[in-house]
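User: Structure tokens for this complex, please. No commentary.
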Amino acid sequence: MTVRRFTILVLAVAVGLAAAVSPFASSSPDGLQRVAADNGFLARGHLGPVQGDAPAKGYEAPGIGDARIATGIAGFAGTLLVFALAGGAGTLVRRRGGVG
Amino acid sequence: MHIPDGFLDPGVAAVAGVVSAGAVAYGLRHAEASLDDRSVPLLGVTGAFIFAAQMLTFPVAGGTSGHLLGAALAAVLLGPWLACLVLAVVLTAQAFVFADGGITALGANVLNMGVIGALLVGGLMLGARHVLPDRRDVFLAIVAAGAWLAVMAGALAASVELALSGIPLGTVLPPMLGVHALIGVGEAVVSVAAVSAVLSGRADLVAAVRGTRLAARA
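Assistant:
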């Protein structure tokens, strides 16, 4: 398998999972949220600076009525965004280093 | 385990931020020297897979859920320093785009869910190369143990940061370790499955086995 084919395959799996499976994932609080709720410090948490304007708060794409579809779209777009950001960071670093 | 803003005292968040920034900066330096043509797409897909897997929250016990953190997986596939870089990218995107994990707490989250696990598993992999045979099952067992330990170490670090921010350690540490002992099992299962799949497809792309017989078998 070439690196290119490997990359496309893994990316397809990741996008598929985020878009089609994540809408059906558990919506229970995570370990930290649970401990915070049980011990009375959950209310200390708040949105940070600029997070009020975050485009897809809570992993839901904006302006879509159905929560599952909104999550699927957020997962689809987010996975491609992270692929671009992480790959882009690698490209920039490599150029700066002058390797290859 | 994403800490929102407000949980940590500003001083604690700042110190964690400095430590994380140092690790990521070192990761960038390391990347300058070690990245080749094929590692750029690998960096991208590892980040993409971890982001996607983090959305797949699974129920653990009593109305609580967990998800992959990914630092162990990234450290096995890319090495510890590139893993720090990838987790920093994932967690930054989550904070700014999805409002998951705070902005001032970002450094603490990168430390707990990235740097600590990545360095721990990186060290474990380095040690394992010297003392164990190049056996796939043994290697995967070490990956599983490393993944579980990375989650526990992250939970410990988060608990200490919360304790330094005024929540008694005796209150936060036992339940944090208890629930993450279960979440860590999920981390181990997903990490082993993913590493196993890459070993079967392109073993030479797994940084932790480079130069061993496991890589040559591909």
